[in-house]
Amino acid sequence: MKKTFKITVLEGLHARPTTLLVTTVNSFESEVSITYEGKTANLKSIMGVMSLAISAGAVIEISAIGSDAKELIEKITEVIISQGIGEEC
Fold first, then answer.
1. 7-46: per-residue pLDDT in tens?
2. Longest dimension (CA), the chain
3. Is this prediction's pTM over 0.85?
4. Catalytic residue among 14, 31, 46, 58
5. 14 an active-site residue?
6. Residue in 33, 35, 53 with CA at minimum distance from that of residue 43
7. With contact defined as beta carbons under 8 Å apart, do 3 and 21 qualify?
8. Distance between CA atoms of 88 and 79, rounded to whole angstroms?
């Protein structure tokens, strides 16, 4: 399952929103990754996500594989939108 988002928070995915996203997905069993400009990182790893240096206006893809992938994508979508991190593409 995959979903694409545009990052709207002015600072991009700096420490606070990254921590929020990682915390959100860590309660799920599915494998989840984030892709930006052809580079992919495990969304359960703060350092992995931070290493992508995702800036404001960036388009990212979040993909999940596993038994609760649908619920994970629904939850991460809710968090990204409700916390003002980004919007669906």
1. 999 999 999 999 999 999 999 999 999 999 999 999 999 9
2. 34
3. yes
4. 14
5. yes
6. 33
7. no
8. 12
Residue 73 identity? I
Phi (first) and psi of residue 36, to 5 degrees: -145, 125
Residue 55 is predicted with a pLDDT of 97
Which CATH superfamily includes the segment(s) 2-84?
HPr-like (3.30.1340.10)
- Per residue in 14-44, is it b (16+ CB within 10 Å) or e — as a string? eeebbeebbebbeebebebbbbbeeeebebb
What are the residue boundaries of the structural domains of the chain, listed by start? Answer: 2-84
Q: Which residue has the tokens 């995959």?
A: 2
Which residue has 């619920």 as its token pair?
71
CA-wise closest residue to 54 among 89, 81, 86, 28: 86
Which residue matches tokens 């991190």?
85
